[in-house]
Amino acid sequence: MKQTHCCILILIVSLHATAIVAETKAPSPSTCVGASGFYNAWIKVGERTCLKCHNAEGDAADSEFLLRDVSTTPAAERASVLVQNCEAFTRMASNKTADGKSRLLTKATGGLDHGGGEVLKVDSTAFRVLNDFVESLSRKPGTTPTNRNLAADDDLSSFFDGVEMISDQRLLRRITLSLAARLPSEDEQRLIKAGGLKALQPILAELMREDAFYERLLEGFNDIFLTLGYNGNGEEVLSYDHFQHTRLWYQKHSLDHIPEKERQRARYKLANQYRDAMRQEPLQLLRHIVEHDRPFTEILTADYTMVSPYTSRGYGVYEELKELFEDADDPFEFIPTRLKALKNRAGKVQQTEHGDYPHAGLLSMFQYLRRYPTTETNRNRLRARMYYDHFLGVDIMNLAPRVSDAAAIDAKYEIPTMQASECVVCHRTIDPIAGLFQDYYNEAGHYGPRKDGWFEDMFGPGREGDDLPESEKWRALQWLGERTVTDPRFAVAMAEHVYYILMGRKVLRPPGDIDDPQFAARRRAYLAQREVIEHAADRFTKSDFNLKDVFQELAVSSFYRADGLAVATDRPEREAELDDIGLVRMLSPEQIERKIVAVFGRPWGRLDGTYSILYGGIDSKEVTERLTEPSGAIGSLQRILANDVACKNVAADFAQPPAERRLFPNIGPDVIPNADDPNAEMTIRAAIVHLHAHVLGRHDHPDDPEVDQTYRLFTGVVQEATSRERFEQVENYFCKSQGQEGPRDKDPHYTIRSWRAVVTYLLRQQEFLYE
């Protein structure tokens, strides 16, 4: 089938590539002729359009018009790079064609046999911007400033001026809840109080040893890789051709030790645990790497996989591994191992050099391959797309325009993807990656090379100009992984993934609408964020790719510490700059359940299954993106949650000895508002202050307005209940602390239900439901 869906090759290279040295010698970094018009031309045309091809690794690498990517340039070098680009633009704009027109404008509109064709239409905003720059060069001397510092607009040193950062104590609580599903300990609070941000690094290092951190880590990376969501039962990743006698081991597994009437249920449980464990293997590889401080590059280069006592039976290797498991009956204890080269039913063995399966981290795991299947027409291009997205941080689909006349291209070329320039610029990058997956040309993700050999109407296997040697064909994915992890974009992409896990949203991309009045402000915000990501990626690389260092770096960054609720400005451009800083996001259903456990000691227990999806969760298959804003259904669930959690926990907390109470350690249900007893009001206010701190993380003074409002709610409920005749002086039947069989809690002063109203009110606050 002829392919006409083409994308722009150089965007893939340039958006995340390291800075490239231009051929021309840079002038002084402080001046450039035509600087007044250049900056606007650069940010709206140069780096968005010209840079795609006119860089040292692009299609126009042989051109004299070479540019460098400012967005990936260290801040200290940015001024010099901008001047180099300005000089290149000025030379090209000043150079005239035979009819006296600027070569820059002529080339941009497709003239002079421009290899990139028509990249700007003469009636476009981008052309007008470029034309303004060209005209600025011919103005009379003195009308164009020539001593302007081009880097002034990209100077980010004052970007966070006036932005309020959350306190170190609030930052500690944010981190422990987000990454360890618990409140900070008293020792941790003392350390932060004494040492400030410097004390956070060792606290975070210890926190990242806890099981809860790995639960959060794997949850976050599944949001990215979605490997839990492949089709079919878990064991279907094991091909019938290679694992015919072992993949369904649970059907014949002896359950003689279980009473006969319970065996069927036990076998269902056995199958479900096996399937669940099989789906978890890619994420368990990530856990193994991070937990043992191994280079995170092993997600693409690991020469091993992870198996459990149950999944190892599916692979047929349990007998040789069983002594290595601490508990052979634990379906979720995972250990690393190497599989042997695959052998099919006909006895044919997979070609390898040493008799082992050519593991290449996630790339060669059956689960990852099945999650992103192929077809006869797709030809592994989906896998190539996900490779760029997951491991180099490039979303090809967002960069790929449609060709203007697909029918004309089909009619003109026999193989458009290899002959039509509009298609070649994309397919010569995508197709070689697709070819590296050719041994898995199977819709189910199983190993199985194409019977007729790989397609000849595609560019051959390789990676961005580097062809796959024939001697490496048997280990093509290993070859790909080894080259990927040395690409600077890999470290940046991993830093972006950690940013997503911490912030709950993806990193900014360059602003797209050049007609947007706030275009320059949004670009400035993008550059500020890129600076943070680049610093994290640099630390990641220098630490031998220890992913924990990325968490350490981003957790103390200004983007994470900024108080998103406190950002206020009356300047539209400043508002646009600060739109994406700080943490203001709705907690996921998993996070809200963990937070309830941390605060109250037990879960709500209802945010799973259908409720999880209604609350904005994902199933990793059909629903793959979490909601970040509440819907009507979510709002209803939040009200139900607040009512239920308060109902379950208030009376139950009062039933405990004061020293064991989480919510009310310093007050009893017999303390009532009394105008004649000021101590009563002080005690109630102190209890409210404790609740604000424990539930919301607020550190209020007893006389703060927020405490006043909560106090009025408490006293109002007491007064209303007291004023009603025959109002029962016992707690609600469903909210009693002793369970359904015990007596209802006595509430003679109506204080239990009043405190329940207070806790319900607090659970509906943004500080609890959001992060």
Can you lay out the helices and strands and say which pair or pack?
Layout: H1 9-14, H2 35-46, H3 75-94, H4 103-108, H5 125-136, H6 168-180, H7 186-195, H8 200-207, H9 211-225, H10 240-243, H11 260-291, H12 298-301, E1 305-307, H13 309-315, H14 318-321, E2 335-337, H15 366-371, H16 381-392, H17 396-399, H18 406-412, H19 416-419, H20 421-436, E3 462-463, E4 466-467, H21 476-484, H22 488-503, H23 519-542, H24 547-555, H25 558-561, H26 572-577, H27 589-600, H28 609-614, H29 632-654, H30 678-696, H31 705-723, H32 751-763, H33 766-769
Helix pairs in contact: 2-3, 2-5, 9-11, 9-22, 16-20, 16-22, 22-23, 22-24, 23-24, 29-32, 30-31, 31-32
Could you give a short account of the major beta sheet?
Answer: 2 strands, antiparallel
Using the alpha-carbon principal axes, give the shape: flat
Strand coverage percent:
under 5%
Amino- and carboxy-terminal Cα gap:
49 Å
Number of helices: 33
Helix coverage percent: 40-55%
Please tell me how large the radius of gyration is: 31 Å
* Low-confidence spans: 1-31, 142-148
Q: What class would the helix/strand composition place it in? A: mainly alpha
Strand order of the largest sheet: 1-2
Would you mind describing this structure in some detail?
This protein is mainly alpha-helical. Among the domains are: 9-154, no CATH class; 227-371, no CATH class; 374-486, no CATH class; 637-769, no CATH class. It is 47% helix and 1% strand. The protein is built from 33 helices and 4 strands. It has helices at 9-14, 35-46, 75-94, 103-108, 125-136, 168-180, 186-195, 200-207, 211-225, 240-243, 260-291, 298-301, 309-315, 318-321, 366-371, 381-392, 396-399, 406-412, 416-419, 421-436, 476-484, 488-503, 519-542, 547-555, 558-561, 572-577, 589-600, 609-614, 632-654, 678-696, 705-723, 751-763, 766-769, and strands spanning 305-307, 335-337, 462-463, 466-467. The longest helix has 32 residues, at 260-291. The radius of gyration is 31 Å and the shape is flat. Residues 1-31 and 142-148 have low confidence and may be disordered.
